[in-house]
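Dear Dr. L.,

I hope this message finds you well. Following up on our conversation about the binding site, I have prepared a predicted three-dimensional model of the protein together with magnesium ion. For your records, I am including the exact sequence and ligand specification that went into the calculation, followed by the structure tokens. Please feel free to forward this to your student if that is useful.
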Amino acid sequence: MKLDIHNTFSTLLPADKNLENSRRQVLDACFSYVTPKKTTHPELLHVSEAMLTELGLTKEDAATNEFLHVFTGNSVFTNTHPYAMCYGGHQFGNWAGQLGDGRAINLFEVAYNNKQWAVQLKGAGETPYSRSADGLAVLRSSIREYLCSEAMHYLGVPTTRALSLSLSGDQVLRDILYNGNPAYEKGAIVCRVAPNFIRFGNFEILAARKNYATLKQLADYTIAHFYPEITSSGKEKYLAFFTEVRNKTIDMIIHWQRIGFVHGVMNTDNMSISGLTIDYGPYGWLEGYDWNWTPNTTDAQHKRYRYGNQAYIGLWNLFQLANALYPLIEEATPLQSLLEEYNSIYEQKYIAMMQQKLGLEPNNSNDNELTGRLEETLQLIETDMTIFFRKLAHVTKKDTAITAIEKINDAFYNLTEYTEEIQEHWKNWFTLYSNRLQEEKRSDAERATAMNKVNPKYVLRNYMAQLAINKANEGDYSLIDELYQLLKQPYSEQPAYQHWFAKRPEWARHKVGCSMLSCSS
Ligand code: AMP
Ligand code: MG
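The resulting structure of the complex is given below.
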């Protein structure tokens, strides 16, 4: 196996001088060296061929013992020094102090094809940041991260990627619902890959500790490597940096809203400095379109991270990042203005995204009302988001409200709930939509093609991941591959997989793992 190792984070930023793997507060450093835990009986379950290629590896490489052992943490690749990052974060709105990579271990960085990739294992054992936990991950959450991060990539959403999914051969104890029923589960390790794994929290911890010299070092490093287009200096440079992070964060959340993805734990330690979707935990996909929905049972009471609140939380988190960067800028006004612009930029991009979903060209019309009314109408009766938007592409300029509704009513979960009053709302909305379609210059077919590029046909519905998990727990890993292949082409028709273009089955409505997930992973 030949990899072009080119470490930057660990060579350019300060390391923790303490080399013990003991849980502690790590001061004056960006990371601590650690050695991954040896596993009992590692077994490779799946490899992303696309990611192999990105790293300059081949299928033959992936079949070697070396690959198996390096990407499960059993052996350390020649001349590399694995490490865990130090970061803090605001969890559910409160400052939580030092968190850090408690069960993630960075192996090395690879330079290939003019790209830089950080390679990290999730679930490879404890680190100085493991706090009261074991540093391990279970198969169920590893399958969810592995499949979803790759699926998001193919959906066109900025995300961390995954290279491989392996069993460790060890048993891991977890209390899934935190209700005093711990049980052993299969341990697993995901090797994930991204340009970097730096979070808002990496900056927050340094600012909180008033470690401004290291804060500046980290900001300069991040800008030089991940925002090379920024060429200004002094305060201007950090303001330009914050502006870019703000814009990338907005773009990422707009993508989430477009496809119905709910992250579930948008704590600042789970916010990537490069605007990537990161840390797939109790995430979920909207089935019924519902602004109040969150899959995370840990958040069931306040629903802080519900679908309809993700944009606001993006802003809240950027506010924390602004506070952390303040010592480098020492002027609140420009930061405040950048935050104040957030809502209007978001609104503008959101409408543009909804216009695309509706197949409307952004001419002079203001589609705010059409969009707003649709959001309300979609929530009057449980309506499957993915199916609704995909079927909407069949509606033509000639359709009446009634014939249009017939084309999408498969998306309704329970037709007995489709009261006359709700029918009126739908008729009204389709009348508006039909009027608006008459202004469109594109043909029905052209519009449908464009819509099908932003409205996926296949997403990783919560129950689909759970079916793959159930089978995997019985030792059958075939569904992992089937879903992996399916989700590589989420916008294509794929008739062989038509059975996955279906509403959530009733059994999955209130099932653990499908609609109820916790942070336990
Ligand atoms: P998360 O909610 O998964 O983003 O994790 C929040 C913090 O808890 C991070 O610092 C994680 O590294 C840490 N953490 C989560 N699960 C574990 C685990 N099993 N062992 C050690 N640390 C963990
Ligand atoms: Mg996290």
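In brief: DSSP finds 18 helices and twelve strands in the chain.

With kind regards,
A. P.
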